């Protein structure tokens, strides 16, 4: 919200010396967020000039310029820059006449964007200044011709300071308005907040007008399908002004204030409705009364009904949309945008003013459904004061009479069925106990009264009725926050609370944190991906076999193409890798810990019929809500690509691959005190020869908990990724459930180890891990460690065979092993591999 300072000063006393920073500081003190400041970014001398004469001069480029003589100061007096009172100025515009009053920027002036004015030679003349257009002054986008002051209804003296005349010496502060404080979307609301902060006197603009209740204009509210039981329109005020002159220009002060507030000038009637909206926070809509057919009906849209809105687009309406209609059909989207059929234009003589209060939820849904945010919808969806509609309508009528020559008519209507705010009980001691400050009863009472509440004190505490412009004050906690805000946040001490004994993180939370710490310490970077995927992404990694897996479809997705909740973390990691690659990061090691959503086939999820409100749902309703949520296990996903070790002197680059993600799996084993079995696996999106399935032993048997592998080259090529991209994904919840509470560490032995190598020839179809497990089983307790060091296939071996070489280390806990004991254990392991897989020892 942008607030012109001169406008703010009309409703609250500002110190003469108050700067932009001072005003921002005062507003920040009461909880508003500073955004910035705005002004017209120009400096003088900029004065009123009178065109005395001009000579058209055609140019060789086909353009005609005018060599003008312009008076810029009273006759015989020096101009604002110290020069002559009559200047020769070159101008390319052709929309002015001799005798017109114009705005002249003299040498030394600086226009918006740092455009400095100086006397310069052009088109064969020395142009001693410039005649300005509205856009050059920052007043609007009109650049078709220069600004004629008569079009603004002005006839000032020559030499008058045009900056002050046009309101270009004003500036504006900008604050961010949070969704719960819609009242601050107005000069009225900001002035009240400044008063709260500084104690300056506040003058409510609603008190400056006397609302008149119009009669005779037919208005009906028919809402047969209210959203969440709330009727779409609870207040609807109309007034009629006749005899409006559509040719009257908007005054300069109004145009300047709208511009500073971020709204462009359109026409006088429209400018007035926007001006009052900014002033009161009440959106106003004006209709061409003569274009209406019959009265007005507020209703829901019909199935397939269409409406051409003011932006020229024809929109197909939804039955949930609230519309304004006359006898021929919809003429506006209530609270969002009016219709073209009743638009106020150059021929409008009689105006119907509408000031209404619409349901915030209904307006928010309509604006988002049609992708049509507007200044009106931003206010309605945050909540508008229901009691300000009549004063705002009266203010519009007043301005139309004063500025547009209109005459107020008795024709109109008023409908008001907005529910009154309920009283809230604030017990003694509650505010201090919640905020942590000992507020006195007088501080609490005066603070709540200052924000506009009605406060009564009884034996138990305070009974508070919030003001009509604060729909966000619904309970005692929100009132306690108001007390803290008004008294001052600086009263709240900075004291860390003492954690109650016996509480803390759960085992699952601690384990997840330890997992993330270990992976980060291992050189991986934690990322967070969006949980929304396309059907193709879910199909690629949701199932190892490629079969279609059930997925939850989001009812109102941010992206209609990515409307499914993820069943795997890998697609999100791939998207993040692609984004980082596009920015030059070619070596990546990423991990994510997050939920996946795994609905059971044939089961419906989601409960749209449960009533949601301020009250806590019943235990039965909570159970029903919980039943409507699909299983959401936490997984851990890993992705590596590029080089695991960069090239350096004497060391070639080592590319990353499946070995690196399997190393990450070993880190998880250490972090979680679990033992995973790695076996050859198959996955529809992973390389068939470089895919592993990961198993864990549970009380009911072995269970698959994930996979690791390299993405198919065809997929990486399609996604513009390097040829080798290795990924892994494991069910972290399952690993945590199987995790031990302690990590077994073998004691350091004082006896030497015996090392031997074992080469076994097996069929190529036999996995190395299975052979290794057989050797471990056969070698017995003397085997301390085993490691695969070679996989040979080629000359000297049968065509379908391979030679696997293992480095073995033997050690006894109580003696020094002999070479014979180590050899016997090794051969026992070889024998077991021979029994299970027909393995033979390679000499």
Task: Please indicate the count of domains.
Answer: 6
Give the end-to-end Cα distance, rounded to a whole number of Å: 84 Å
Query: From the coordinates shown, what is the CATH architecture of the largest domain?
Result: 2-Layer Sandwich
In helices, the fraction of residues equals 25-40%
Short structural summary:
This protein is an alpha+beta fold and 843 residues long. The chain contains 21 helices and 42 strands.
What do these coordinates show?
- This protein is of the alpha+beta class and 843 residues long.
- It folds into 6 domains: 2-40 and 170-203, Phenylalanyl-tRNA Synthetase, Chain B, domain 1 (2-Layer Sandwich), CATH 3.30.56.10; 46-165, OB fold (Dihydrolipoamide Acetyltransferase, E2P); 215-416, Phenylalanyl-trna Synthetase, Chain B, domain 3 (Phenylalanyl-tRNA Synthetase, Chain B, domain 3, 3-Layer(bba) Sandwich), CATH 3.50.40; 424-490, Phenylalanyl-tRNA Synthetase, Chain B, domain 1 (2-Layer Sandwich), CATH 3.30.56; 508-603 and 620-738, BirA Bifunctional Protein, domain 2, CATH 3.30.930.10; 754-841, Ferrodoxin-fold anticodon-binding domain (Alpha-Beta Plaits).
- Helices cover 26% and strands 27% of the residues.
- The chain is built from 21 helices and 42 strands.
- Strands 28-31-32-38-37-36-35 form a 7-stranded mixed beta sheet, with helices on both faces. A 5-stranded antiparallel beta sheet has the order 5-4-3-6-11, with no helix packed on it.
- Helix 2 (20-29) crosses helix 4, helix 13 (507-521) packs antiparallel against helix 17 and helix 20 packs across helix 21 (819-837).
- It starts with a strand and ends with a strand.
- Residues 608-614 have low confidence and may be disordered.
